[in-house]
Design brief:
Largest interface: A-B, 60 and 60 residues
CATH topology of the largest domain in chain A: Dna Topoisomerase Vi A Subunit, Chain: A, domain 2
Oligomer: homodimer
Number of strands of chain A: 6
Number of helices of chain A: 7
CATH architecture of the largest domain in chain A: 3-Layer(aba) Sandwich
Distance between the termini of chain A: 66 Å
Strand order of the largest sheet of chain A: 4-3-5-6
Shape of chain A: globular
Largest sheet of chain A: 4 strands, parallel
Chain lengths: 200, 200
């Protein structure tokens, strides 16, 4: 099939189609929308993307993505320095931050251990976590990995590494999601919620 | 809530969230993916978007979006000059072009008539269509608007405007979509398919 449109537009469609959540069809729709709103959307987006490409940096302390290093979370001195919450990815950090549930600092692993994908401890930011956990002011590490096989195996490995460091190690509670219906939950979640039943 | 990340990154998330098919959550995920693949994705995307912003143009003949004017479809002299296919949006033109079903030229209306949204004939590219339809070489106009109330009202209006111009006017066939299951089709489609039944 001949090209439908100019090479610059085709290239933009191809690149946008690589984003998670977008495929070729939605990328085409997005590009047409962008071109239709050239002044309101395409031109500002060009500037925003160039700015982000220039300034985005990975925090050298925790692995968060920000335009400053250390990131704004690590630089915030009102936080509780005794607690580090360990997450797999930056998106998890942002999700926890939005929930407002954690007042301490974070540590982004950058993934999970995975024999299948050849990801060992050295590919993740585990060594740096152990180092941070040994700082005198840190007394608590919360492992907030995903409740997947790889996530839990990684948590298990970190627990072993932290032995003897003197910090208390926690994991997130399992249970019924708020707003969740029992009928739609898997057996594992229901069993976990029952085992961890609480007095009312 | 305090900002999770730098203002340049927040701004990029806000802009991406305005694209059709993306919301705030998927825009955040897309931006993290972009920053993770900075050299492979973010930097090329910055260049592609700047190129598109500079070069994208609306074809002055048919309304297609391309990096040249007249667009590559209008400039293609191997096409059948006797037929113009009328569509609502550029995305419809691209969809028909991908199907390879139309060998003539196109005309993008830029939407449909809509009393509710205050869109009358002057807001659409209808006058220019009538003009093109009066050219001696044009003998056939195919109305390929969406099978919606607004689309069909617009088609009806164009049929009236084309009266006396000497061109034959067609519309797309209604019927069972290829691969479609009867049980899932609405009554209107089934009735249309039955009325238009064909000998095998």
């Amino acid at each position: 099939m001949a090209s439908l449109t100019g090479p610059e537009i085709e290239r933009l469609i191809d690149l946008l189609a690589k984003l998670p959540g977008l495929g070729p069809r939605s990328a085409r729709r997005a590009v047409l929308h962008l071109i239709k709103k050239k002044e309101a959307l395409l031109v500002p987006l060009a500037r925003a993307i160039a700015d982000a490409a220039e300034k985005a940096a990975v925090c050298s302390v925790c692995g968060n993505v920000d335009t400053r290093d250390p990131c704004s979370v690590c630089a915030d001195e009102r936080r509780d320095p005794s607690t580090i919450c360990v997450i797999e990815e930056v998106g998890d950090l942002w999700a926890l931050e939005r929930s407002g549930a954690h007042k301490g600092y974070y540590h982004v692993l950058g993934g999970t251990l995975s024999a299948l994908d050849g990801i060992g401890p050295d590919e993740l930011s585990i060594g740096k976590l152990i180092e941070r956990a040994r700082e005198a002011r840190v007394t608590e590490v919360i492992l907030a990995m995903n409740a997947t096989v790889d996530g839990q195996a990684t948590a298990h490995y970190i627990v072993e590494q932290l032995e003897g460091s003197g910090v208390s190690v926690f994991r997130l509670a399992h249970g019924v999601p708020v707003g969740g219906e029992l009928d739609y939950l898997d057996d594992g979640t229901l069993s976990a919620a029952m085992r961890a039943k609480r007095p009312v």
